[in-house]
Amino acid sequence: DAGVIQSPRHEVTEMGQEVTLRCKPISGHDYLFWYRQTMMRGLELLIYFNNNVPIDDSGMPEDRFSAKMPNASFSTLKIQPSEPRDSAVYFCASSPSRGQGNWGSNQPQHFGDGTRLSIL
Amino acid sequence: DQQVKQNSPSLSVQEGRISILNCDYTNSMFDYFLWYKKYPAEGPTFLISISSIKDKNEDGRFTVFLNKSAKHLSLHIVPSQPGDSAVYFCAAPSNFGNEKLTFGTGTRLTIIP
Q1: Considering CB atoms only, which of A106, A110, A113 is closest to B98?
Q2: Per the CB < 8 Å rule, is B106 touching A56?
Q3: Cβ-Cβ contacts under 8 Å, A43 against chain B
Q4: pLDDT of chain A along its 120 residues, tens only?
Q5: Choosing among A46, A109, A110, which should be mutated to test the B contact, i.e. which has the most B CBs within 10 A?
Q6: In whole angstroms, what is the distance from residue B61 CA to residue B78 CA?
Q7: pLDDT for the residue numbered A110
Q8: B1 touching A, CB under 8 A?
């Protein structure tokens, strides 16, 4: 059973460059989440999608950040231009929908192994 | 405004003993709580959850306790094993649909052989 797949695992680039992080969710999962983990702020949700549609992007820090989900098996998080303060570990996660009649319960999110981004 | 708080950044426990990790929350509307475990260079993995209608949920060596009046939950690991050394996050859904998770800052658990 393939889990959530993220690429690249590590990215080192210079300030001002465009960075694209990629995610393949678990097949059949309707929800996809992008998180960022830093020492200062911990694990914070940036944006999430349901059935490829962005639902909540209130966690996206600035207009330099954008995310897309062109189909059910692929999503990207782009930073343009990148800045040193964007250095962090970025995680993608996916989860299935709640089952019918299962209102109020939560399906655990499955995380990828993250992309460690360093902006010099 | 941190709605889910883990006030202990680290904890060391002797192998075989009980590990107790704590989490406090501020929003009384939370109706579901989860614990995730994270090893270095890996993503968090789901460990155990509890609904607000319960005060205890057990899964093998792991038990989560919920005290709604105190807005406090705890994760007990008995007996602790070296493989339990990891960072543990508590989380709660912060929206009506329960998809949007708010995470605590994590507690690094070290099991001493």
Answers
A1: A106
A2: no
A3: 44, 89, 103, 106
A4: 689 999 999 999 999 999 999 999 999 999 999 999 998 888 999 999 999 999 999 999 889 999 999 999 999 999 999 999 999 999 999 998 765 444 444 578 999 999 999 999
A5: A109
A6: 5
A7: 94
A8: no
How many interface pairs between A and B have CB atoms less than 8 angstroms apart? Answer: 56
Cα separation values, B5 from A74, A98, B16, B107, B109, Å: 33, 26, 27, 10, 16
Whether residue A4 and residue B43 make contact (CB cut-off 8 A), yes or no, is yes
The radius of gyration of chain B's CA atoms, rounded to the nearest angstrom, is 13
Scored b (16 or more CB within 10 A) or e, A59-69 reads: bbeeeebebeb
Residues 6+ apart with CB under 8 A from A54: A47, A48, A67, A69
Angle formed at CA A119 by CA A36 and CA A68, multiple of 5 degrees:
50
The answer to whether B31 contacts chain A (CB < 8 Å) is yes
Report d(CA A3, CA A1) in Å as an integer.
Answer: 6
Q: How many CB atoms lie within 10 A of CB A26?
A: 18
Cβ atoms within 10 Å of B82's Cβ, excluding its own: 10
